[in-house]
């Protein structure tokens, strides 16, 4: 399931209108907004089936592959947190129909030959724990992962935000399952896999955030991504550009007061 930029705008409008006492629409369901168009059953329960049908009708041609964006980062790296909160998540919110995002929390960490402390991180032990928490969340929550990671990385305290962000965006996933992953073998396996992916980068990464597009890294694309990831994704997409990229108006059925 992907929530398009049009639906995101619709949700913002709904929130704005409710502030003025307008009750249309007022979804009351147990799913967060990111899940509303995941299935027809959920859309009906949340009373947004009409809006989801409109969104589906404007989605790009699925025969054209989306732009693949992979972010190699560290959970407590200030520059990574800024990139996730100010570039990656806002861009994905508007362009997720033409892009996919893969998150690899590891960065400049090192694997150590120690059973008690198998990783050393640039920003200390809290970052190692943050990396593993986020790796477990990515593994356990699927489509909701980017919402949760954004929620954590944009918070004042990344680690303290983990549990409430999980409850907000993936209420069906218990914190105990994440905690078990972090304290058990799965967390270490996930971090080792991230270490292998990071070490395999060609060219090798020299800093984070390190971003690849369709599996490739160039300094030119990195410079563009840091200044406007949105425009870069629009530029790299080979299919017909969605309205968000072109600024073309889309006529949808709306009522106003």
UniProtKB/TrEMBL annotation:
Coiled coil: none annotated. GO terms for cellular component: extracellular region; lysosome. Keywords: Disulfide bond, Glycoprotein, Immunity, Lysosome, Oxidoreductase, Redox-active center, Secreted, Signal. Residues 1-21 form the signal peptide. It is an enzyme of class 1 (oxidoreductase). PROSITE patterns: SAP_A. One of its GO terms (molecular function) is oxidoreductase activity, acting on a sulfur group of donors, disulfide as acceptor. PANTHER family: GAMMA-INTERFERON INDUCIBLE LYSOSOMAL THIOL REDUCTASE GILT, GAMMA-INTERFERON-INDUCIBLE LYSOSOMAL THIOL REDUCTASE-LIKE. This is Gamma-interferon-inducible lysosomal thiol reductase.
């Amino acid at each position: 399931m992907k929530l398009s930029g049009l639906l995101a705008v619709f949700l913002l409008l709904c929130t704005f209108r409710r502030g003025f006492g307008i009750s249309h629409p007022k979804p009351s369901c147990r799913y967060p907004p990111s899940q509303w168009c995941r299935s027809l059953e959920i859309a009906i329960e949340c009373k947004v089936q009409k809006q989801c049908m409109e969104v589906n009708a404007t989605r790009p041609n699925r025969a054209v592959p989306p732009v693949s964006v992979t972010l190699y980062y560290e959970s407590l790296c200030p520059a990574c947190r800024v990139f996730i909160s100010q570039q990656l998540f806002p861009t994905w919110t508007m362009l997720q129909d033409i892009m996919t995002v893969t998150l690899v929390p590891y960065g400049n960490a090192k694997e150590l030959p120690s059973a008690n402390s198998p990783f050393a991180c640039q920003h200390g032990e809290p970052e190692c724990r943050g990396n593993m928490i986020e790796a477990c969340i990515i593994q356990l929550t699927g489509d909701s992962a980017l919402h949760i990671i954004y929620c954590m990385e944009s918070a004042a305290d990344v680690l303290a935000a983990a549990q409430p962000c999980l409850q907000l965006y993936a209420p069906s996933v218990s914190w105990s399952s994440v905690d078990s992953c972090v304290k058990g073998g799965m967390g270490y396996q996930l971090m080792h896999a991230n270490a292998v992916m990071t070490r395999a980068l060609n060219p090798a990464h020299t800093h984070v955030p390190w971003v690849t597009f369709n599996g490739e890294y160039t300094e030119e694309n990195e410079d563009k991504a840091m200044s406007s990831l949105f425009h870069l994704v629009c530029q790299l997409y080979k299919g017909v550009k969605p309205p968000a990229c072109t600024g073309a108006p889309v006529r949808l059925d709306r009522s106003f007061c």
